Amino acid sequence: MVFMTDQELATRVKDQILWDGRVPAAEVDITIEDSKAILRGTVPSYRAKMAAAEDAWVVSGIQKVDNQLQVKYPPAITVPPDSEIASSVNAVLVWEPDIDSAQIEVSVTSGIVTLRGTVNAYWKKYQAEQDAYGIGGVIDVINELGVVLTDQPFDQVIARDIEAALARNSHVNVEDVTVAVDNGTVILGGNVPNWAAWRSAYNAAIYTTGVIDVVDQLNIVYT
């Protein structure tokens, strides 16, 4: 990898965010410290906040992202009351065909959504959180959903399935990633060469049957 100064990396991250139509970049400030991108400022939605972090991750040379962006809705937008936000989150969960919304309790305080209850797969916990992010008026999401499986596979089976998924993936070298499983909790370790490899390894864990939690200890190490 060609060495870049902190200023050059900051410029690349800024350019990536400016390119992204989901993120109004005027109020986004980027600083780089030891290959970590720190995002500060304001954006008009939680979806824009998440998109800005993703933009920073994909820039070659960035190893960590500290997303300190604050969600501040423009004055021209009428922010719905908490009760309406809760109703909207409940509605979008009802429309998810794979999620039993009856097992999920949604509460909202000052735009912060809290999800409680249970789902029967880890990826459904992740999906419920993503659904809540897209609702207007949401400032943040606290995901307290528990994963309760009806049939718990052996840890060895889960690890084997994740490793097989990694081996099929063109973005990640299976030998770069260590996979440990303890009572359904997956611990990912090792060094991967870029964000695409990290994303692929993480997805391999969250979408595997039997997983109840994922502990990410992967490092992005550019060569």
Structural summary, described in words:
It is built from six helices and eleven strands. By secondary structure, it is α/β, with parallel strands linked by helices. The strands form three sheets. Strands 1, 2, 3 and 4 form a four-stranded mixed sheet that branches. Helix 6 links the parallel strand 10 and strand 11. The longest helix is centred in the N-terminal third of the chain and has 14 residues. It is flat and about 50 Å long. It starts with 5 loop residues before the first helix and ends with a strand.
Count of DSSP H/I helices: 6
Strand residue percentage: 25-35%
Structural class assignment: alpha/beta
Q: Could you tell me the mean pLDDT?
A: 92
Total count of strands: 11
Q: Helical proportion?
A: 25-40%
Unreliable residue runs:
none
User: Shape from CA axes?
Assistant: flat
Largest sheet: 4 strands, mixed
State the separation between the terminal residues, measured CA to CA.
5 Å
What series of H and E elements makes up the topology?
HEEHEEHEEHEEHEEHE
Estimated radius of gyration: 19 Å
List keywords for this structure.
223 residues; alpha/beta; four-stranded mixed sheet; 6 helices; 35% helix; flat
Helix and strand topology:
Blueprint (H helix, E strand, L loop, with lengths): L5 H14 L8 E6 L2 E8 L2 H12 L6 E4 L2 E2 L10 H13 L9 E6 L2 E8 L2 H12 L6 E4 L2 E2 L7 H14 L8 E6 L2 E8 L2 H12 L6 E8 L3
Parallel strand pairs: 2-3, 2-4, 6-7, 6-8, 10-11
Antiparallel strand pairs: 1-2, 5-6, 9-10
Helix pairs in contact: 1-2, 5-6
